């Protein structure tokens, strides 16, 4: 049905999409995970309540999350150019994806950590655990199922956003869908890319949930 | 030697604009080797009090001495070190649900930077003590409530504490399991010489294992002393209520509707149990008394009979009955209101 050129293009699209999604998720977690831990620790019922730090982080997360991704993508062009040297292509897309996802991840992490039984934290304190011990050996361990579920949802979102960046020349399957489907009226290629995105999404979702389920010892 | 000394302890909570006095001027001394019961209704402040013993709650004023250390004088780091000497178990067990039994027991040891191999070895010994050796690979979710509390006890004992605080440790357990956990606690107290503080709302728990008791009501200690003394002569209304009403689950509620005019509570000590005192009394005075309640309990390992009698209306006859019973060496006490 398609010639090898189109197939190669689609394969490259898959590769670029996965590249963007995976790298963005990992880098976003490098920022988002500590941010989420800070939110939890400094919150009113946290290990070290601090109204000022919590207030600043809280507002920062809300501001970034309230900017629509497409606008963020454009707003960040100068910053993206500063970080990776150009403002288009798969690598450049990682920058706005990370900026967009990190506060979202922070919130997911915060809510996962909120699920940890306060009684278990109290028990750890009664054994003489320090706050660092509690974060790393109690909270992150007890919340791991919820954290992995959160990571799965986040990865799915980033996959969706990476496709959106196709509108500004971001690369990957989204880019192909926009170029062929929207500008050239080649509906068949657009549908194929959409199906490929659905399949990728399903794989991420299923693998993530499976890992989370296998690691859960509460049942 | 005094293990825990509490001096003029007060704790106030600020809730928005309100301040709540959770604890008012508490003074207590707990000796080494005691099994000390702290009993009160829910909301009396007993859980807050026990958290002041390891400074999970910092008192608003007053002092807590553990051995020869004043907890308020310790730095955060010294306090953490001291806490490893004061273990605690909880009503909801508070085990790490994502770690198996042996890793739960190893947890406090690993916090103290003990090597993995040594921690495992010690954990195995502890699981032996609590009788759960064959469950070391199981996860808490796969255990019953009693087994979970045993794991929690093993974990609490890991760092060889001098003191074990039990916060309603048996309240979530059925009577049989409660009995076996209490037996384990008594064993630990005897064999390892650990001072135990038991927080509870059940008089049966106190009479089962404690040698001393403090009764706490609305943030104040209203009565304390040897369990036997408090049980025989409860002075405060809170103590009376706990002793008389305490075991609702066992007696299925107490006769509140029967309103004999004058009621007395009799406690039978060991000697008096041989003579059929009540029967003799009825024969002697040729009058009926109404038995409102009768029970036998284990107080500190001694069987104690307890009975509440409704006396006949004639006041001289009442006095005669009371003095007759006193002469037979029974502990007598008037009970007022609905029992």
Keywords:
heterodimer, A: 219 residues, mainly alpha, MetI-like fold, 10 helices, B: 339 residues, Rossmann fold, Alpha-Beta Plaits, 2 domains, four-stranded antiparallel beta sheet, 30% strand, globular
Report on the structure:
The complex is a heterodimer of chains A (219) and B (339). Chain A is mainly alpha-helical. Chain A is built from 10 helices and no strands. Chain A is elongated. The termini of chain A are far apart. In chain A, 41% of the residues are buried. The mean pLDDT of chain A is 93. Chain B is an alpha/beta fold. Helices cover 35% and strands 30% of the residues of chain B. A 6-stranded mixed beta sheet of chain B has the order 6-7-8-3-9-10, sandwiched between helices. A 4-stranded antiparallel beta sheet of chain B has the order 2-1-4-5, with helices on one face. A 4-stranded antiparallel beta sheet of chain B has the order 12-13-11-14. Chain B starts with a strand and ends with a strand. Classes of the chains: A mainly alpha (219), B alpha/beta (339). The interface between A and B is medium-sized, with 24 and 31 residues.
């Amino acid at each position: 049905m398609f010639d090898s050129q189109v197939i190669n293009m689609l394969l490259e699209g898959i590769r670029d999409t996965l590249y963007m999604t995976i790298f963005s998720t990992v880098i976003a977690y490098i920022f988002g995970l500590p941010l989420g831990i800070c939110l939890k620790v400094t919150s009113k019922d946290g290990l070290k309540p601090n109204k000022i730090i919590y207030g600043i982080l809280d507002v920062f997360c809300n501001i970034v999350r309230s900017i629509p991704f497409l606008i963020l993508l454009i707003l960040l062009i100068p910053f993206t150019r500063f970080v990776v040297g150009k403002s288009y292509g798969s690598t450049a897309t990682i920058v706005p994806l990370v900026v967009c996802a990190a506060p979202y991840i922070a919130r997911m992490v915060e809510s996962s950590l909120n699920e940890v039984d306060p009684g278990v934290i109290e028990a750890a304190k009664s054994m003489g655990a320090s706050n660092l011990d509690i974060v790393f050996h109690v909270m992150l361990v007890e919340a791991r199922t919820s954290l992995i579920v959160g990571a799965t949802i986040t990865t799915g979102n980033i996959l969706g956003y990476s496709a959106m960046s196709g509108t500004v020349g971001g690369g990957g399957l989204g880019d192909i869908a926009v170029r062929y489907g929207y500008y050239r009226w080649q509906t068949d290629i657009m549908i194929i890319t959409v199906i490929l995105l659905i399949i990728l999404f399903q794989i991420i979702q299923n693998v993530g949930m499976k890992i989370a389920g296998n690691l859960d010892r509460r049942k | 030697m005094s293990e825990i000394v509490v001096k003029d302890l007060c704790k106030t909570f600020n809730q928005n604009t309100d301040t709540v006095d959770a604890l008012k001027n508490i003074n207590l001394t707990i000796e080494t080797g005691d099994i000390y019961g702290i009993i009160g209704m829910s909301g009396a402040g007993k859980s807050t009090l026990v958290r002041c013993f390891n400074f999970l709650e910092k008192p608003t004023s007053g002092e807590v001495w553990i051995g020869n250390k004043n907890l308020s004088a310790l730095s955060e780091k010294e306090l953490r070190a001291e806490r490893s000497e004061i273990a605690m178990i909880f009503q909801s067990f508070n085990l790490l649900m994502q770690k198996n039994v042996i890793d739960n027991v190893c947890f406090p040891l690993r916090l103290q930077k003990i090597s993995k191999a040594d921690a495992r070895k010690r954990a195995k010994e502890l699981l032996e003590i609590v009788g759960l050796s064959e469950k070391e690979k199981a996860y808490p979710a796969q255990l019953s409530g009693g087994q979970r509390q045993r794991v929690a006890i093993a974990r609490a004992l890991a760092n060889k504490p001098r003191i074990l605080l039990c916060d309603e440790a048996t309240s979530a357990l059925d009577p049989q399991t409660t009995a076996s956990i209490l037996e384990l606690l008594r064993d630990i107290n005897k064999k390892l010489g650990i001072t135990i503080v038991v927080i509870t709302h059940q008089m049966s728990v106190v009479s089962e294992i404690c040698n001393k008791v403090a009764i706490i009501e609305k943030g104040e200690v209203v009565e304390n002393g040897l369990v036997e003394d408090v049980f025989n002569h409860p002075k405060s209304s809170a103590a009376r209520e706990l002793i008389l009403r305490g075991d609702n689950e066992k007696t299925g509620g107490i006769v509140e509707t029967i309103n004999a005019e004058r009621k007395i509570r009799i406690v039978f000590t060991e000697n008096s149990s041989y003579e059929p005192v009540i029967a003799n009394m009825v024969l002697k005075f040729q009058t009926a008394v109404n038995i409102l309640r009768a029970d036998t309990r284990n107080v500190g390992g001694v069987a104690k009979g307890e009975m509440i009698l409704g006396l006949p209306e004639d006041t001289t006859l009442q006095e005669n009955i009371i003095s007759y019973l006193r002469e037979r060496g029974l502990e007598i006490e008037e009970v007022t209101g609905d029992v």
